[in-house]
Amino acid sequence: xxxxxxxxxxxxxxxxxxxxxxxxxxxxxxxxxxxxxxxxxxxxxxxxxxxxxxxxxxxxxxxxxxxxxxxxxxxxxxxxxxxxxxxxxxxxxxxxxxxxxxxxxxxxxxxxxxxxxxxxxxxxxxxxxxxxxxxxxxxxxxxxxxxxxxxxxxxxxxxxxxxxxxxxxxxxxxxxxxxxxxxxxxxxxxxxxxxxxxxxxxxxxxxxxxxxxxxxxxxxxxxxxxxxxxxxxxxxxxxxxxxxxxxxxxxxxxxxxxxxxxxxxxxxxxxxxxxxxxxxxxxxxxxxxxxxxxxxxxxxxxxxxxxxxxxxxxxxxxxxxxxxxxxxxxxxxxxxxxxxxxxxxxxxxxxxxxxxxxxxxxxxxxxxxxxxxxxxxxxxxxxxxxxxxxxxxxxxxxxxxxxxxxxxxxxxxx
Length: 414
Prior knowledge:
- The protein is α/β, with parallel strands linked by helices.
- Helix content is 40%, strand content 24%.
- Helix 2 packs parallel to helix 6 and helix 9 packs parallel to helix 14.
């Protein structure tokens, strides 16, 4: 049995091409293959068309020794994945009695009648390894000829994912001599191009581990990946490189390693320090509170928040001075600071976070264009504010996301 050195993913279904269904299978399979140390050369989607499927299968096998196909294993006449793969390997189909009996039991357990066309799903190429499906009707298949391997899985993620874990991974694990571990460095305050410029020498010189920057909504992520014979060795290789990156200019902009988000990093830090937080939001409309409360168990650090969109709400709910607003304006450092202090005192929190600004698309002036945002943080030691000048060409959503992200970053570093 030949080791799997490379793989491609081919997702089958016209509904995927039409956008009727979001293709999450390719992402899921790619992540799982990476953990096994199997590189993915290409992902593709093909419709339920025999000729195009023949071409896609042949092209994939011309580059890789393993092709993973999802979808097209159903009972209808347009489900032709199995037939096309069997044709490529030159194998006839035969009825797999175990798969048929499992299918009958499945229908019986759900109180449904099994129609004749469902028997099509129990057909398998001669000599194929049948991957029984305990989560649906269509079994998966492994077909190999000593040089090439095809793995066929049903399309619904609720079936594909457990089948992958319980059926496919044990098979592939036997055929891979290494694993790949990836760790992510999260950065705020330095863009992707600047990060790439500072770390270019690593990107060009290093082959294992590797460094790759990615842009996000107002922030940046660096993926560090290492390949080794076991997970611990690969993980240690990543950690060593991460320490080197921390020593570069990039290091001062890192807010977390494998924390997924700035809000997660903030909650973790507050929890470690036994502190609480409250929010007062204008232009972000509750987005900071929403992102914090997306994290399970955040109730031990997040006390609550106010969306003080109108001027009166700022004054009546959190005690912003009318004189401050009249003198400095609603969108100002002074107003943001009073909002942060007001919500902190009103809810008895250790930290108050506030945002006020112009998210657009209208409302901007020459003095304060769209994208002008003030963020502020209040603690018992006083207030800190920051002006954000975000691009007025960006969407309202982008400006709000960036404002919320930067406000939480200001709190994280307070």
